Amino acid sequence: MTLTMNTELILETQGLTKRLGGKPVVNGVNLQIGRGDIYGFLGPNGAGKTTTIRMLLGLARPTNGAIRIFGKDIRKERLAILRKVGSLVEYPSYYGHLNAVENLEAVRRLLPGVPKSRIDEVLSIVRLTNDARRAVKGYSLGMKQRLGIATALLGDPELLILDEPTNGLDPAGIQEIRELIKSLPKTSGVTILISSHLLSEVEQMATRVGIIAKGNLIYQDSIERLREQAQGRIRLGVSDPESAWQMLLSYGYPAEWDRSKLTVGQTDDRTVASIVSRLVNHHFQVYRVEEEHASLESIFLEMTGSEGSL
Amino acid sequence: MLLRILSSELLKIRRKLIWFLVVLGPLGAVGLQIVNYGLRWDYLVRPEKASELWSDAIQSVESLALPALLIGLAIIASMTAGIEHQMNAWKMTLALPVKKRHVFAGKFLLTSLLLLVSCVLLAIFTYIFGSVLNSMIGLHGPVPFGELLRASFYPYLAAMPLIALQSWLSVTMHNQAVPLTVGIVGMIVTMFGAYRFPDWVPYKWPALVNTWPHPLYAVGAGLALGSIVLLLGMGEFVRKDVK
């Protein structure tokens, strides 16, 4: 569960807890995000993702626990931290009566040391240059969300915190935002925390994953480690599977029979070969030997419990 | 830092009709008096009262400017805060490297600044109105600048607790119906109750009537209580979680 020692921790929480009306919404969460990570922060709706992110940005006070970003305590050095953090929290914030340039300028005036030319830069990163002079209230949701990302990038942050940046977008919009986010670390070397309720959305870009359910962080490791858990099983199509299952168990193979299919958890070639020869020796007819892959999504649903699928 | 916030705030109120209201208030007060004087010229401008012409003009404008100020401060406080409420921009602004109390102070300063501009315009419009009135009957006496400036700025200074209160309510509450109702009721209380309340009631102060025979009482008390309300609001805003 811990990062390798040579990675510098950009963000770390210890026992982060938030109670609302006595009920813990976030419960003892220990996040660890290293420099250069794209950290996928996953969980079903209402699991505590947004509340956690609000605490990371100093928008909400933790009931308990500590937050350290860039090695600094958020309670003591909030301004110094926020100077190097860009954020987009939930649905987009914008001033609808202003155009994109004015929106960014209103924010730029609060960011010390950011030149005016940076506004054109971030607009071209999110490809809004052509619509920059239109009132933002006429933008599509995808464009508003891109403007939100441009706002987050304005201060040239070292840490980018994006809360559900693809929420409510159509597939094309999701794709667009995903490509945009994937391209950022290459161009600016930024560390990204991105939250989502869909694993499929972040699995293609995340390097590390944290999964939160009912306020508890139930998983935190590299995406590769999560993929290993999604390893396949061998499915066997045989005559009389129930007695074949008992036979395989008697030889010590990890076979499973759920009254519809017979599967074996071990998938290396030698095991599969020996299983097949045992079956043949015991006069079972073998129709099919096929590999079954559990999707990351099903593992995610299993971890987060039933509310994930509702 | 406050200057940066204020410059950002001034940018945000573009195209919001707020500046229109800032001009409309004083213009309306003077404009209505122009109509009044036009209709009742013979009664209001009598030769035997020529020496009081300036005072009458200033006081008549002031009687309309006061309700305009009281309702205007509630509307402007609500509009400046509404810019953030409307599109949930508080979370964006407060995740920037700014102190929360400065953000709160910025909204209050913006509202007071806009109202100050209104008062300056009021003084200018009243001066023009009075001068034209005097020259129309051939008078070219000295302009009572002291009285003109007192009438234009004292109610504003005495209304500081109300500006701070409306600013606080508008910033804390998402639903702007509440602060606007408080503001409208406040205006009615001042307009109809100013003479009935004891001196310590803040809603009385902008009317500049108190038993202690100097309007500076209302100004001093207004500035003092205004600062206290501002600090209380700031304290609450800093402690509260951002929605």
UniProtKB/TrEMBL annotation, chain B:
Signal peptide: none annotated. The chain crosses the membrane at residues 17-39, 64-83, 104-133, 153-171, 178-197, 217-238. CDD domains: ABC-2_lan_permease-like. Keywords: Membrane, Transmembrane, Transmembrane helix. Pfam families: ABC2_membrane_4 (PF12730). This is ABC transporter permease. It comes from Cohnella lubricantis. The lineage of its organism: Bacteria, Bacillati, Bacillota, Bacilli, Bacillales.
